[in-house]
Amino acid sequence: MPLLEVSNLSAGYGDAEVLFGIDLTVDRGEVVAIVGSNGAGKTTLLRTLSGIVTPTAGTVRLMDEDVTGLHAHTLVEKGIAMVPEGRRLFPRLSVRRNLEIAAYSKRARPKLAESLRAAYELFPILQERSDQLAGTLSGGQQQMVALARGLTTTPEVLLVDEVSLGLAPVMVSRVYDAIRAIRDTGMTIVLVEQNVGQALSIADRAYVVQQGRIALSGSGKELQSNEEVRRVYLGLE
Ligand code: ATP
C-alpha cells in the first residue's frame, strides 16, 4: 500500500480549473519529484494535498485512509507537512521560536524536545543560530529553518515547494544536501521544482506536470535521459 495515493484529482480556484485528473502514488521512504514549467499546476497540487485548496473531484488517501477535502490543520495532525514556496517564516522571531510554533499540533507537541534535537542534528548551523531572528539569516539558512519547521510537525510525508527558488547556486547545493540528509532519516518527501535537473538528480521517481495533467512519469534516472525532458526542461539536446 502506498503512503500517499492520489486518484483522478482535480482542483482549481473558483471557476479557474488548474488540475485535471491527477493520478500519483508515493511510497514510504521515497523522494518523489513533481516537475514542470511555471504555471503547470505544481504548487496547486501541493496545496491540494496539504488541504489549502479543496479538490473538486478525485481522492487522496494517506496510509489507506481517505483524507480527501480535509482541512490543512487536520491533515497536519494526520501527518502531512508543507514547506511552502518563499519559506514564510516569522522573520522577527528567533529560529528556535519558529520551530516551537510549528509543534502546535496534538501530534507534534509531546515530541517537541526530540524534534528540536533532531533538527539541530540535521542542521548544526541552526543550533548555533537558534537565538537569532529568522529574518536575519541567509536565504539558504532560512530554507533550512523552513525544512526543519516542517519536520517539527513530525510528518509522515514532507511536501516541499520550490526549495531552490531565489537561492544562489552554492546555496542550492547546500539545501539539496539538507534534503538528502532528511531523506536518509527515512522521511518520505514530495518535491515540487522548476529546477528540473536538481530535482531529478535526487528523486527516486518523478512526475512531469503539463497544463494540470501528468504528462510523463518514471524513475529520476529514466526522466533524466528522456529526450523530451532533456529538450524542454533541461535545455539539452
Ligand atoms: P509556479 O512554480 O510558478 O508556482 P506552478 O506549476 O506551481 O507554477 P501553480 O502556481 O499551481 O503553478 O499555478 C497554476 C495555475 O493556477 C496558474 O495559471 C496560476 O495563474 C493559477 N493560480 C495559482 N494560484 C492562484 C490563485 N490563488 N487564484 C487563482 N489562480 C491561481
UniProtKB/TrEMBL annotation:
Keywords, sorted A to Z: Amino-acid transport, ATP-binding, Nucleotide-binding, Transport
UniProt keyword annotation of Transport present: yes
Any coiled-coil regions, as ranges: none
MF annotations from Gene Ontology: ATP binding; ATP hydrolysis activity; branched-chain amino acid transmembrane transporter activity
CDD domains, sorted: ABC_TM1139_LivF_branched
Gene3D superfamilies: P-loop containing nucleotide triphosphate hydrolases
GO terms for biological process, alphabetical: L-amino acid transport
InterPro entries membership: AAA+_ATPase, ABC_transporter-like_ATP-bd, ABC_transporter-like_CS, BCAA_Transport_ATP-bd_LivF, P-loop_NTPase
Domain ABC transporter: 4-236
Family note: Belongs to the ABC transporter superfamily.
Full protein name: High-affinity branched chain amino acid ABC transporter, ATP-binding protein
Organism: Pseudooceanicola batsensis (strain ATCC BAA-863 / DSM 15984 / KCTC 12145 / HTCC2597)
